[in-house]
Amino acid sequence: MTAEIDNVRASYPDAAILVDGQIDEVTVLADEMLASVFRNLLKNAIQHNDKPVPEVHVAVEERPEEVVVSIADNGPGVADAHKETIFGKGEKGLGSSGTGIGLYLVNMLVDRYGGEIQVTDNDPEGAVFRLTLPKIAQQERTDA
Asked: 15-51 b/e with 16+ CB inside 10 Å = b?
């Protein structure tokens, strides 16, 4: 995840990407496509932001059986009516020049990993994309 944060920082030098706390290395049930999940969420938080300086906060919470990654921004947020459909194929935000495939891909991959993704309101403004992924148990790691 830190490599994706560094890459997005380099691509968007006018944006502020802040990491809340420390990102420890944790083994989750995923594959190499997980990097594209993080990259897509980070880029969306910047590209769909209407502030002069897009601000993105990344936080990672490790729980006993899962990891929760939150990517919060200070942009316009996601309308309540759109929160249920935002991960659908071809869905685009208002004025979006994207293809509408990015969040669909994110959702499909997270589902494949046995995880969950949701979008909520950020306080006082913006959106929070919360990604929950199952950890791989110590026993599974040694058996692999």
From this structure: bebeeeeeeeeeebbbeeebeebbbbbbbbbbbbbee
